[in-house]
Each structure stands twice: as C-alpha cells, then as structure tokens.
Design goal:
The chain is an all-alpha fold. It has helices at about 5-20, 30-40, 45-60, 65-85, 100-105, 105-125, 130, 135-150, 155-165, 170-195, 200-230, 230-235, 240-245, 250-255, 255-270, 280-295; strands at about 95, 100. Strand 1 (about 95) and strand 2 form a beta hairpin.
Length: about 300
C-alpha cells in the first residue's frame, strides 16, 4: 500500500472533523478561538487520530463513529504542544514552520487556548450527539484511557520529569520514562482507543497495545535524532534545542548511528506485534515504518 496516499486521505477526513468541532475564529471571545485554530491547523500530520483509525480498521470496524473520538486526540495533542512551547517550559519560538502560539497571541492567550483545546476534547468525548455510535461501557473506557494518557501518569508526568532533568546527568531508565510518558502515552492511547471502539478481544487489544507502546518509543527516538540532523525548513522548528537546554536524549546515550538502529529495531518489533493480524492491519505496519523514516 502507498502510506503517503493513506495518510493524506485520512488527514483530510480528520481535518474536516476538527473544523466542525472547534468554534470558528470569529466567535466571541474571538482571540482565544483564533489562537486555538491557529495552532490546530498549523499543518500537523495527525498521526495520533490516524493511528486510532488504523487500529479500528485492523479489526474490520467502520470508523465514521470514531472520528469525533479521534479528533479529541488531536485536540489534546495540540494543547500539549502549545503549553510545551511556552517560555516556562521548552521556550520554543517555532512550531510546524510558524511562530508558536504565544509568540503570536501572547502567553496568556496561548495558555488559555491550550486549556480550551483540552477541555473541548472532553466535551466532545462526553457529548451524546457526537458519540451515539459508541456503547456507554466502551465510551467510558475510552474516556478513562485518554484521561490517563493526558494526565500526571502520562503526558503531564513525562513533561515534569523532562523539565526537571534539564542540565542534569540522568540515567537511561529516567530517559525512557520521559519518552514513554511525554510522547508515548498518547500514541499508545490512540491505538487503544481505536481498538476499544472496535471491540477488540483481550488478545488483540494486548497486541495493539504493544504496537502502540513501540510506535510511541520509535517516534520519540526519531524526534531526538531529528533535533540533531534535521533541517529547520523540514522539521518546522529550531534544531539543536535539546543540546542547548542540556537535555539527555537517545543520541547522547548511544550516538546517532546506534540510535537509528534502535529506532528501526523498535519499529520492526511493532510490526511483529501484528503478526496475527491480516492485511487490514497493513496501514499500521506501514505507519511504523513511516515513523522511523520521516524527516519532520
């Protein structure tokens, strides 16, 4: 299959969904809605919602009822980027090739835009009009999954340890904690959301969970590599920021070549975790390869 065609088609569907979920830029109070949309439609790849869709497809499920849930994953991901970029955190000036939200709208509106996206995600998840295709027990499980991945046991916890580790000598288990929580938790949850939506058996849910864990780790290893080798016009932000901030990364532990090997090994393990799935899981297999071969 052509993964680029698949990604383009799914991104189009996800973007249409997001456009319907988020208030228009002119709705009062316009400043925060404009800031939310500025960051949300800045050209993201939509990897998380697409992983959710691909997981459901791997189980043979239709995905029209999944789209609002998948959209909520992107709302949460974008909120996390807005907040990560703030001066109090990673202090980045560019994201996806554009000035970061706080550079355009100021810190206060950027914080509130992130808050707005996070809360909108849970409004969507709990809206019966948008989630009527999902039985209540599965919807509750999905909300719990996303809440945990977004909170102190997931992204928030990972961000805390990441910030507290700047400029310090940390051990490898601490680095793994940062990667599997700050980045990996929401990727893992995205795959599980699609699986839960599609009523996966316990065995298949376990296999897809393993795939999500490995895909998330591979994603972050490649991010670490791109922070050294990437070009600003391709990755959309300044390169070398981890080094400037004194952050320990996979390349700082293992070097670039070994890190590339490890990323490929992890992606291969992700594909292997789908060995009992038929060709309907090919998008997931190709997504694992795409994650390690991407340039942004």
């Amino acid at each position: 299959m052509d993964i680029k065609t698949y990604l383009s088609a799914k991104k189009f569907i996800v973007d249409k969904t997001l456009d319907k979920l988020v208030p228009c830029a002119k709705m009062f109070p316009a400043s925060v809605h404009e800031a939310m949309r500025y960051s949300l439609f800045a050209g993201g790849k939509r990897v998380r919602p697409i992983l959710s869709i691909a997981a459901a497809e791997a189980l043979g499920a239709g995905t029209s009822g999944l789209l609002p849930l998948a959209g909520s994953l992107e709302l949460i991901h974008t909120y996390s980027l807005i907040h990560d970029d703030l001066p109090a955190m990673d202090d980045d000036d560019f994201r996806r090739g554009r000035p970061t939200c706080h550079k355009v709208y100021g810190e206060a509106i950027a914080i509130l835009a992130g808050d707005g996206l996070l809360n909108l995600a849970f409004e969507v998840l709990s809206d019966p009009r948008r989630t009527k295709a999902v039985p209540a027990n599965r919807l509750i499980a999905i909300i719990k999954e996303i809440s945990a991945a977004s909170g102190v046991l997931g992204m928030v916890g990972g961000q805390v340890v990441d910030m507290e580790s700047e400029g310090k000598e940390i051990d490898f288990p601490t680095l793994e904690y940062i990667h599997t929580h700050k980045t990996g938790a929401l990727i893992r949850a995205s795959v599980r959301v699609g699986a839960i939506y599609a009523k996966a058996s316990e065995k298949r849910l376990k296999a897809l969970t393993r795939y999500g864990e490995l895909a998330g780790l591979a994603f972050q290893i490649v991010d670490d590599i791109l922070d050294i080798t990437g070009k600003r016009e391709e990755i959309g932000k300044d390169v070398g920021s981890d080094l400037k901030k004194g952050k320990r990364t996979f390349p700082s532990f293992y070097g670039l070549e070994e890190s590339r090997l490890r990323a490929n090994e992890v992606a291969e393990k992700a594909v292997h975790s789908l060995r009992d799935f038929d060709r309907k899981a090919d998008p997931l297999r190709e997504l694992a390869k795409y994650i390690v071969n991407r340039v942004n």
